Amino acid sequence: MQNNLLGSLKEHQNKLLTIWSDLLQANGSTDGATEEEESKEFTALLLDALERSNGNANSHEFEKVHDLLIGISSSRGRRGFSPRENAQYLIAFKEAASKILSEIESDPSNLYSANLQLSTILDNMTILTFESYMKGREDVISRQIDEISEISTPVIRVWDGVVALPIIGTLDSSRTQVVMENLLQQIVDTGSSIAILDISGVPAVDSLVAQHLIKTVSATRLMGAECIISGIRPEIAQTVVHLGIDLTGIITKASLASALQTAFDMLQLTVVKRK
Amino acid sequence: MERIPILKMGDFLLVTIQVDLYDQLAENLESDLINTINKHNSKGVLIDISAVSIIDSFMGRILGNIAVMSKIMDAQTVVVGMQPAVAITLVELGLSLNGVISALNVEKGMDLLRAKMYNGDNEEQVYDNSNQ
Amino acid sequence: MTTATNKEELFIVKEQDVVPLRNRVKDYGVRIGMSILNQTKLITATSELVRNLLKYGGGGKVIIESVNNGRDNGVRVTFIDKGPGIKDVAMAMQDGYSTGKSLGLGLPGTKRLVNEFDIQTELGNGTTVTIIKWKNG
Q1: Chains linked to B by 3 or more Cβ pairs within 8 Å
Q2: Rounded to two decimals, what is the model's pTM?
Q3: Residues in domain Histidine kinase/HSP90-like ATPase (chain C) (predicted)?
Q4: What is the CATH number of domain B6-131?
Q5: Measured between beta carbons, which residues in chain B are less than 8 angstroms from residue A187?
Q6: B87 touching chain A per CB within 8 A
Q7: What is the DSSP string of chain B?
């Protein structure tokens, strides 16, 4: 392009900002002061880049603008804007810029090519805001997954040398890994020689879950500690036998209380009532 | 040739494995240990593997061999300090190290060895009494 | 789609080469932030497979790579030998099967330790085993 029409937008920066904020106000995707600051910074940076890039949409001049935009859209995301509103934010800018272009240029073919370039540049940026929004969401989800697996396997020190781990919910293979890791690490950290695995909160025990339990017991024994499984409800005992699962090598107890009693026996402790 | 040192502590032997094992090293440990048990007439062996970051099927088999061999020479073997990740990996691999007795740390391992010796004597006495 | 970013080759001809190989594999795991447990599983699997490579294949080449499948990072280890090959792969993958003097849980046990396991073998032409352990696998 001969006269760098997009570059000349810089001379109309203030006007552009006014039209843009009017448009934003009209479609309701604005929230005042913070946004005004952001918009000002964005406009200044983008117009600079437009001037220097000379209409080339792939120019590295836009990298800084992209960085700023990612910051803005994640900040807007935190302030409660939907990705749609974030896209509208940029579309409104395009509309404002295009309006000014048609005021300062009368030749239709020049105007057309300038608008085309403007569209390419801003459409790229719109995609970028979507991507950064998605990425932000994915980060939240993966953090929550970590937190859930963290809080769903609390290891409780019930006595000196005895730790208990109540399992709530289904026990699949990835969860078993987390359970085993936490339990064994706690055994090492506390020097506990007895671990109680309470499965009162496990809705059903099938052969796969039983296999996971047996693995956990085996790993505990390899470390040199004993593992008691408690919270065996009548229906669990029934299914276990009906499925032909062999739990005879494992110490099982109906309740956490009787598991604790067994643990005391193993540690040669007695609980006596004070006279 | 690299070898793992075996320390004698009274009736017991203490082995602390500080390096990652390869097959030959593990095989040497097996034969050295059995010979040392024989030489000192040791009653117990304590193998500290807290610094060992992996145990595969071969090394697992060596540990099992040591436990069984020492047993028939009237010495009890206790493996102490297995890392949680090593224990989980062994279980996934399908190795349960049958015959190997383990303890959480050296102190608990020593207690276990002493208890085994004491109980072992008791058992013999009971057996003798019933014969009379 | 799995893409490799980082790659190195090691030649394994004797037992003493095993420890350095395990350390290299560990480095790759550490670099992508793999948990201690997954590192241990990966290194144990490597140890099992490299023993097969030495014992049945008479040594060979091991390739270690950092890989990415778009969702997760991982480590891929490929074991290539020019040994006699495996006669019946399906049987070799069964628990309890072994031709050598091991416990007979080499291949199936190893498969359980990793996320992806592939074995290509041809009688007289050698065996190639490829394993992948994902960071969060």
Answers
A1: A, C
A2: 0.72
A3: 37-137
A4: 3.30.750.24
A5: 84, 104
A6: yes
A7: -----EEEETTEEEEE--S---HHHHHHHHHHHHHHHHHHT-SEEEEE-TT-----HHHHHHHHHHHHHHHHTT-EEEEE---HHHHHHHHHHT---TT-EEESSHHHHHHHHHHHHHHHHHHHHHHHHHH-
